Amino acid sequence: MGDLKLYAKNEKDLTVLIETVRIFTTDIRMEFGLEKCARQIIQRGNITITDGLNLDIGKIKDADIETGYKHLGILQNMQNKQKEVKRKVTTTYRKRLRQILKSRLNATKKILAKNTSAMPVITYTAGIIDWNKKEIQDLDRMTRKTMNMYRGLHPTADIHRLYLPRKEGSRGLREVAATVRFQCVGIHQQSKGKRSSYRSSLEISSNQRIQK
Q1: Strand partners, 48
Q2: Which residue, 185, 178, 183, 151, is CA-closest to 164?
Q3: Which residue in 103, 91, 20 sits closest to 4, CA to CA?
Q4: Which pTM does this prediction carry?
């Protein structure tokens, strides 16, 4: 079963929700996956330690207070673990970038591989993790430095031409700063559109009730 996160106002209601999910997954012949499940009880802003939740199919343990849990690839606890996620994303991005640059691909294919394999590691967290301007600039600087180390970029090359599209005679490398900014704007517009649609549906429903 895919990632599912349940919220409830108290522990009793949360237990009811978990039991409902268990019954549903059993009915449709899907595996509950207890080894990937965790529970976290927060009362008045503090995490409450319990013995877990016993079900007919096993036990759901409490999430570790220090390490937290992972939901949709993002480390979380009472909130997103910003520093840990940034550190992991930066390490994974650097590793993939080096693997691409060390490969025997030609220059064009290396740029394409970087855009489609390494860059998504960062863009996935855009809008979820708070990347500040300096951190994003450091990622772009690290990218150019690594390309220079593996002879993928001349030390005196024009930086602007590196990021322009190939159809304009440049190399077409995706800039981290521009990509993160574009992703954040897209998320904002999408959420704004959903709110507008929801508001419109409420207005239509209200008008129908008034007419009746």
Answers
A1: 41
A2: 178
A3: 20
A4: 0.74
Provide the pLDDT confidence category of residue 206 given band limits of 50, 70 and 90: very low
Instruction: Provide the residue type at 93 as one letter.
Output: Y
21-197-79-92 Cα dihedral, nearest 10 degrees: 90
| pLDDT-based confidence at residue 209 (cuts at 50, 70, 90) | very low
Closest CA to 73 of 63, 59, 84, 64: 84
Distance separating alpha carbons of residues 69 and 67, to the nearest angstrom:
7
The residues, ordered by sequence, that sit 6+ positions from 55 with a Cβ below 8 Å of its Cβ are: 18, 19, 22, 34
